[in-house]
Specification:
Dodecin subunit-like, 3 domains, 4 helices, Double Stranded RNA Binding Domain, Thrombin, subunit H, seven-stranded mixed sheet, single chain, alpha+beta
Amino acid sequence: MIKFSKIALILITALLINSGIVKAATTMISEGVASITSTLSDNTYRKRAVEDALQNIAISRGQALTSFTIIENGKLLFDQIQSTSKAGVLSYKILSENKKNKQYFVKIEAVVEDRGNQDHNSKISSSCRKSEFPSIDLTLSIEIDPQQFPAWAGLDNDWIFKKLSKKKFKPNVIFKSNQHLKANGSTKYNLFETSNSSKSSKNVHHIDLQLVFSKGQAERFFVKEQIIRMTANSQLKRNGKSIESKSQQFDYTIKKKFGVGIPIQSNKKIWKEEKQRIVKSIVEIINNSLDVIGCAYIRAKLKENDKNFYIDYGSFDGITKDDIFVIDSTKSDKFYFSVKEISNTKTQLKLISEANRNELGGGRFVRLVEEL
């Protein structure tokens, strides 16, 4: 009896495990075809037919499969099924294959991951690469005249610095400075430690953020408000070139009273909450720039040195050794590049086809093939 119970327990466990597998993946049958256009090997046309079958699966699931073949003078230069994993294909096997009327036919059985079990990141557009930069530089310039505001307001450069220095950003934000000035009554600070400015930086991204605080008035339904207006001008640069520029205004209440001069509530209590809003606004401005960096749309200028091609994008931008690039052009002639070598911020490319190399010219831009 005990032995039978053990066997039953094993069978139940196996059924549960198998049930989990069934829920996680589905088997699909698909057919593909490739036209036979030259004397290339059967293996080449088999690959193309399989690619077509996988493409049919991808289309039926509302997804795209990136793949292409480059043939020059009857010679296969490049043949790659690039994104089976993006289509949710876990594995496949060929059930049958045959040639007929200059066409190569295959039937495959594929194990496809259920949509509900696919990673959330697969919903992100493949054209946007998740970057992994460890840090960026930020120069924060603050202009404020303390004489415009009550002494108890406590709004100054040091207070802003202390609040921001406690915040954690991803990637890490390194504050830089070129100057540290004081002027009559008003102060203009470039935070933070001036010693940072003497250190050379290897970061390719830099945020310039200028904050200007000024006094203002607002009146709403017999309620008068004294406000502090923060004008924020931000510019995100990559290797010294501007990627994004923004100018925003934010208003914060420092005093509130009825038209007859009666305070509505404690001004200090109002201002305590508004000061925290100032910090949140600055943090949000910085994080918005970091979001731009975190999602890289790669369109890079193609550079050449000693007949070697390279771009100023690298592994930090999400580029991998399997990536393929193409000249960003509306012309029918395409130049494709594979990845030869990658560093953190630079990638050396190899021209796949040397034909018509002289027509490549300078000043071209390349993009990932998956963005075609």
